[in-house]
Amino acid sequence: MSECEGLTALVTGGASGIGRATAELLARRGARVAVLDLDPSTVGEPLTAHRADVTDDASVRAAVAAALGELGGLDILVNNAGIGARGTVESNSDAEWHHVFDVNVLGMVRTARACLPALRASAHAAVVNTCSVAATAGLPQRALYSATKGAVHALTLAMAADHVHEGIRVNCVNPGTVDTPWIGRLLDAADDPAAERAALEARQPTGRLVTAAEVAAAIAYLAGPLSGATTGTALAVDGGMQGLRPRTG
Ligand code: NAD
User: Fold this and answer.
1) How many alpha carbons fall within 13 Å on the CB side of residue 188?
2) Are 141 and 88 in contact (CB under 8 A)?
3) Residue minimizing CA distance to atom 19 of ligand 1
4) Is the peptide bond before 140 cis (omega within 30 degrees of 0)?
5) Which InterPro entries does the UniProt entry name for this protein (predicted)?
6) CA of 133 relative to ligand 1 center, distance in Å
7) DSSP 3-state of 114
8) pLDDT tens string for the chain (249 positions)?
9) CA-nearest residue, atom 35 of ligand 1
10) What is the 151 CA–ligand 1 centroid distance (Å)?
11) For ligand 1, mutation pick of 35, 133, 178 (most atoms within 8 Å of CB)
12) Which residues contact residue 16 at a Cβ distance below 8 angstroms, ignoring those fewer than 6 apart?
């Protein structure tokens, strides 16, 4: 399929998991794709890779400038870099709150700010933010993470409103629990990884984890020309987690 032929894309957090699957899918659909990541060492052709820390504005601006120089412009920004956090309002420190907001929310703001001039010059401009079902679901032990994703959801709507008249569409995807290296690390750290995995699977009515490829397909749809009338929306890719009751037996 080549529905992204002639388009250019930048994917943050594109070295792993959802971002990697998205970058590779957009490339297979014909886009020229650059990845921005804290550790892009595993990224190879046809993708190009740029090291940047989304908590560092100068590093983001330098990486975006280098990527756009190579790509010759920008049509698609996938704002995906993010980190997890476990805990309640009592267990997470102020420093943890500042850091996770810095990565998950301000990271998207910095990257969008650096990319907007190029997106304005595109005849097909789309931003897709990786949000989460945690933005709206009320998950236990995820106060900090959920608050950052609630902010990403609100940011998506506000950006969509601010830039619709410039021809820039802004949407987000809300994944459930996705089988990525992130979840692998979470399971490795659990006392009983098999029981933890079973609990994560049972939380989703489909009874299984979402795949990175399924989230990538949703992001590619929102980034591509087939969703040209869609802006300011959140597309759930969550195994029914938001809308349905989990299996009870
Ligand atoms: P992952 O850990 O596999 O990949 C995240 C990538 O982001 C890594 O390559 C990492 O190096 C990069 N990154 C992290 N901090 C960075 C920083 N400061 N600057 C630049 N790059 C940085 O994780 P994933 O599961 O693919 O998650 C990607 C996105 O999906 C995140 O925004 C996450 O919140 C969201 N998400 C994940 C799940 C899930 O269950 N895996 C569910 C809902 C939403």
Assistant:
1) 6
2) yes
3) 53
4) no
5) KR_dom, NAD(P)-bd_dom_sf, Sc_DH/Rdtase_CS, SDR_DHRS6-like, SDR_fam
6) 14
7) helix
8) 588 999 999 999 999 999 999 999 999 999 999 999 999 999 999 999 999 999 999 999 999 999 999 999 999 999 999 999 999 999 999 999 999 999 999 999 999 999 999 999 999 999 999 999 999 999 999 999 999 999 999 999 999 999 999 999 999 999 999 999 999 999 999 999 999 999 999 989 999 999 999 999 999 999 999 999 999 999 999 999 988 876 665
9) 130
10) 16
11) 178
12) 37, 42, 180, 181, 182
180 lines ligand 1 (CB under 6 A): yes
The catalytic position among 145, 147, 153, 214 is 145
Q: How many residues does the chain have?
A: 249
- Ligand 1 atom showing the smallest separation from residue 18 Cα: 26
Measured in Å, residue 93 CA sits from the centre of ligand 1 at 21
Edge-to-edge strands of the sheet including 234-237?
Answer: 48-51, 32-37, 8-12, 76-79, 125-130, 168-175, 234-237
Cβ neighbors of 212 (< 8 A, separation 6 or more) are 17, 18, 20, 21, 178, 179, 180
The continuous run of DSSP H or E covering 35 comes out as strand 32-37
Ligand 1 and 54: CB distance under 6 A: yes
Active site residue 145: yes
User: Does any ligand 1 atom lie closer than 6 A to the CB of residue 19?
Assistant: yes
Helix, strand, coil % in the chain, rounded to nearest 5:
45, 15, 35
